[in-house]
Amino acid sequence: MDTAYPRQDPRAPAPREADGRAHTTLTLAAPRPAPRDHLIWSVFSTLYLNLCCLGFLALAYSIKARDQKVAGDLEEARRLGSKAKCYNILAAMWALVPPLLLLALVVTGALHLSRLAKDSAAFFSTKFDDADYD
């Protein structure tokens, strides 16, 4: 068993220099990270039951991205993973923004009502002179 590192392809012809020695030139590109499929995030987005089923769309694209990654088509896996990420972000925004807006409306409404109540209490507690009723 050959355990030498780095391994070379034994079928590749070895180029020769002028003095007869063999040399090999290997050009390596920067390794690209494996494509992300965002599957866990998509499962949570799906289970949260958000509007327009965006979590389900994200889950479908995540599964497709994982399938393409296993099949070896990394570019397609990156493209599908990117779509899954976009749908997950949209699902998160649909899940977070409306409750926050509702909370803001409730707080501002409560503040407005408390100010109205304070003004009306001052109005009804006003003491009039007896001369005003004659």
Task: Indicate the topology.
Blueprint: H1 39-47, H2 54-71, H3 74-124
Strand content range = under 5%
Distinct helical segment count: 3
Overall structural class, as computed from helix and strand content, comes to: mainly alpha
According to DSSP, the number of beta strands is 0
Label the overall shape: rod-shaped
Fraction of residues in helix: 55-70%
Terminal CA distance = 118 Å
User: Would you identify the regions where 5 or more consecutive residues have pLDDT less than 50?
Assistant: none
Instruction: Write the H/E string, N to C.
Output: HHH
User: Which radius of gyration do the C-alpha atoms yield?
Assistant: 34 Å
- Mean pLDDT rating: 82
Largest sheet: none
If you had to describe this structure to a student in words, what would you say it looks like?
- The protein is mainly alpha-helical.
- Helices cover 58% and strands 0% of the residues.
- It has three helices and no strands.
- It has helices at residues 39-47, 54-71, 74-124.
- Helix 1 (39-47) runs antiparallel to helix 2.
List keywords for this structure.
0% strand, 134 residues, mainly alpha
Give a short synopsis of this structure.
With 134 residues, the protein is an all-alpha fold.
